Amino acid sequence: MKKYIFTAALTVLAAAACSKENIENQKQVDEVRGIEVSANVSEATRTTIDGVNVLWSKGDKVGFIADVESVVAVDSFHAIKDEFDGQKSAKITVPVKADAVVTDETEIAFTAYYPYSAKTTEGGRPVAEIATEQDGQTGEWGYMSAKFSGTVASLAENGLTFEHSCAYIDFQLKSSAHKGCPVTEVKLISLDGKFLTGEYGLTGEGALTDEEIGTRSNYVSLIDPVESLSGEWQGKVAVVVPVDLTGTKVKVEITYTENGADCTQSKIIDGSNLAAGHKVTLKLNLDKTDFNVIEFEDETLGALLATAFGSDGYLTMAQAAAVTDESLVVNALTKNMSISTFHEFQYFTGLRKTPNFSTNSIKIGKITLPHSITTINDYSFRQTNISEINNTYGVTYIGSYAFQNATSLKSIDLSLVTSIARSAFNGTSGLESVGDTDNLINVDSYAFAGSGIKSIDLSNVSRAGDYSFSKCGNLESVDLRSLKSAGNYMFQGCAKLTSVGSLRGLSKIPDYMFLNCLSLPSVDYLTENVGNYAFQNCYQLEISNEQLKVVKTIGQGGFDNCKKIAGEISLPVIESIGSSAFSNSGITAIDLTGAPIKEIGSYAFTRMNALKKITISANVSKICANVFQYNNNNLSEIHLLSTTPATLDAGAFASISDDYIIYVPKGCVETYKAEWADYADHIQEERQ
Prior knowledge:
- The chain is mainly beta.
- The chain contains seven helices and 47 strands.
- The strands form twelve sheets. It has a six-stranded parallel sheet with strand order 28-30-31-32-33-34, with no helix packed on it. The protein has a six-stranded parallel sheet with strand order 38-40-42-44-46-47. It has a five-stranded antiparallel sheet with strand order 6-5-8-11-13.
- Mean pLDDT is 85; it is low at 1-31 and 42-53.
C-alpha cells in the first residue's frame, strides 16, 4: 500500500450480496472463483500510530486464513489490480473453494490479513516477521487483520474492519545541548526477557501467538531515528509484538554522534502494556539527567504538576518519584477541578499512601496507582466520580470513607488487602467486583453498606463491624467460616443473600445480623446465642430441631417472621427467651424439658398461631404476663414439670382458647389450684 499524511484505519466493505451464478460469472472473467467485495479506506477513521493515510497499491496482497470447514480457501490471497493503484477503493476477491456452493444465506468464516506473507510454518500458517532492527519506516503498519463470521449477505451489508495485530512505540527525542547531532540508534530492551520482536504464526483469530517459530529478541531498535537533534520533539515509530511489560523494568539506550564520536545515554524505566493496536509514546530529553518526560493525557493536570514538582514546563519520572508527601499532590491541583484520567500518577513511586482528592473536591475518572502504594488513605476518593483504579496489587489497607459514594466505580482489585476501615465503600452502588479477597481479615463498620457487590470472599475474615454489608441488595453468597466477631446489622437488608457458610466461630449471632435477608434458606451451624431480631423476616429460613438444641439464649424477635421454622422443637439448654422470639413461625410444639431457664418472659410465645403444645422446664420459677398474647388459639396443652408452682403474673395465659389444659406433676393438682386459682378449671394431673 501507498502511505500518505493523515493515517486512517483500513476498512473492507462487501460491495453486494453474492449468488452462485455471480461467482461462476466472475470465475470466467478473472479465472478466480470467489466473492468480489470492495476494499475501502475511511478518511474519518484514524489509526493509533498517527502518520499516514493508506491508499491501495498495485500488487498489494491481502491474505486469507480459514478453517478447513469454511467455504473460503484455507490459505489464499488476492493481489490488488493495476487499475486500483493509488485509489481509496479497490475491489478484491475472497477466494472460495472450487466445490463450494455459495448463496446469500451461506455461512462464511475467515480472517483477512494485510500484508500477505508467503512464508509459512510447518503447519502451513502464515508467518509475521517483525525485525529487531528497524529504520522507523519499514513495517510502520505492522500486521492488521479482520475476522468475519456470518452469512454472505451480512458480509455484503456490514463488511470488515481491519485492526492492528501489533503494538507501537513512538520514540520522541529532543536536545538543545546536542543540537545538530544525528541520533544513529535508539534501543528499548526488555530486562525480564520478554520478547519484543521475531517471527510469529498468524492464526485464524487474526492475532499473533506466543508460539516460537523463529528467531526472537527481547529488544527493538530504530536505526537513524533523528537526522538532527533540536529543541523540538522528533522521532519515529517502531513496531513490536503485543506484550504486557507492566510491573517490569526496561532499558532505553540512545546513541548519537557528536564531534565524530559515538555517545550513549541510557536509563532504566518502568515498562508499559504494549497492547495490540496501541501506541506508547516515550519522550526522551537528552539534556536532562533523567530524560524520561511524563506525557500527560490531561494537559492541564500535567502543567500543574510540572509547575509544582518539575522544571522547564515538564515533569520527569525521577521528579515525580521524588515526591514523598501525598498531600503535596493535592495542594498542587486546582480546587473543584475535574480530571478524566490520571494514569501518570503511577510514576509517583515515592508515595506510600494515596492523596485525599476529596479535600479540594477534585473529581477523578480513572487513575493508575504507583506500585509503592500500600494504603488508600481516608477520604481519598470520596465522592470523586472515580470509575477505574488500576495497580492496586500492592495495597493492603483501605482507609475510612476512601470510596464512599463513589457510585461510578464498578470494580477494584483488593487481592492483598487485609483490612478495610469504616465506610470505605459505603454507597458504592455501582461496585460489582472486588477480586479475590482471601487475604482480608478485618472489615469495619459500614465498609460495604449499600454497595452493589454480588459476592466477596470473606473466608479469612475474623472481624466485621456494625452494618458492614448492610443493604447490599445484590449480594448473593459469603463464607463466614473464620468469623469470630461480628457487628449488629451486618447483613441487614441483603435480600438476595442465599449462602453464608458456617457460623461456628461466633459465640453469638449479633442483633439484627440477618434482618430482612428475605432469601436466606439456611445456616449450617447455629450459635449458642441468638441476638435481638437476628433473623427477623428471613422468610425462607429453615432451622432444624438439632440446630436449636445448642441454643442458650434467644433475643427479642430472634426468629420473628421466620415462617419456615416449623414442627416440633426442643430447647434443652435454653437459658432465656426474648419476647416474640418465634412470632409468626410454623412451630407446633416446644419442649423445654431440662432447660436451665428460670423465667418465661412477657410475650415470649406471642403470635404463634400454629403452636399446640408446650412443655415448661422444672427450673422455671416465674411466668410473666401475656406469654401467649395475640392469637394463640390453637394452644391446647401446657405441660409443667415443676412440683412447685412458679410465680405467675396476672394475665400470664391470656389470649389462649378456653379449652386448653394445664398438666402438672402427679400429686400436685391441689397445690397448683391453690396457687393459680384463676386457672384452676384448666389444671389436670399429668397423663401417664
